[in-house]
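Quick start: read one record
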Amino acid sequence: MATHAPSRTRVRLAVAVLSALCAFHAAVPAASPLADRVSLGESTMTWSTVNYATDAENGFVLGSLDKKTIVDRTFKIRVLENRYLKVALLPEFGGRILSIIYKPTGHEQLYRTEVGVPYGIKGDTFYYDWLMVVGGIFPTFPDAEHGKTWLKPWDFRIVKQSAGEVTVSMSLKDDFAYSAAPGKFRRGFTGIEATYYVTLKAGRAALDARMVLKNPQPRTIRYEYWTCTTLAPGSDPKNPRATGGAEIIAPIDAYRTPAWSANLSGGDQSLGMGNSRFEKLRYFRNWPSAGIAYAAPDMRARNFWGVINHDNDEGIIRIVDNTVTPGLKMWTWGFPSFTDETDPREDPNPARPYVELWAGVSDEFFHSAEFPALGEVSIPETYSPTVGMSNVTHANENILINLTAEASGVNLQFFSIEPATPPAHHAETRGCGIVR
């Protein structure tokens, strides 16, 4: 249904899709208007970490950490590519989407650490009693705090491969356990079978994914599932990082923090009952330190969130049915991780500048959901880069819209996920309003 502005209202149309198309045509000669195709290839990546050792169960070997020695590890990656996106997957270390490069600008959308540094060792915080950040987008289950699969190899399979679409999957079954896991984590294993489908289509400037979880047991089990995203949109691919221009785009009014992160809310109005107005904490520059904040009450009412980098107005937005993943957990290392950033090879440490947003089947860590006997949970999601958008107010799998009305006029920005398809077609067929 179209919305008509009164004749005296000044209408400003900042059409972000045109920016994307112009950027693309600047990068590709106009004389080659070829139909888009999707390719799938293999490559290798070298990733550096400080020197350390783990035992056969992935537990950390005390005394093995040597931050003065940096070692390189080589992994096989799978590369999906079309006219708009170049996507790298790392199945063998956590089943993760490691990189999304938006080709019209040449910029990275995801964070990736240059030198991995183990931390939280024997701190009773993580399942293996230690953690190391790699980056990207990756599934975590069946426990909170990165779960037990973040460092495991996932099985890779090609599901569909054609010029118009490539779909691959990364799969893992929870049939293993760490005998020395801290007491707050589950004993044994759940048997949950997880398959992460990743799809890139021709002519589409977004990556589609779908996590399918299956409970093969004839009884209800308690579990947690979270998709962890480490975001740094509009970055140099050689040095992805969040900057002072990063804003968390989440259509929520309030947030809450655990007691140990209460200092995060110091700049925002208290709403009582442990909640604070989500205003200043939207901006990475206002995070005084590391900490956790949760959407209050949750994300069920809206279907998107992400980060926009206002330094260059590039962003990445996750679009999904949040009745399935109502939890939104927000984390950063604090803005000092940017202002006080050091050379990762001279001073290896985990506190680096990025924004970590999590989508969960429960509202916060250590709040379990119930998985029905022989049940299945499907979580379709779309990750769309944005260009020229200062905010997002509405989204679906084909278009992102920023619509605001003020006394001086109406502002409309939109970004088409399928640039060759007229934006009005998306809006009218999907029920979005257009200001004329």
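The chain is about 5% helix and 40% strand.
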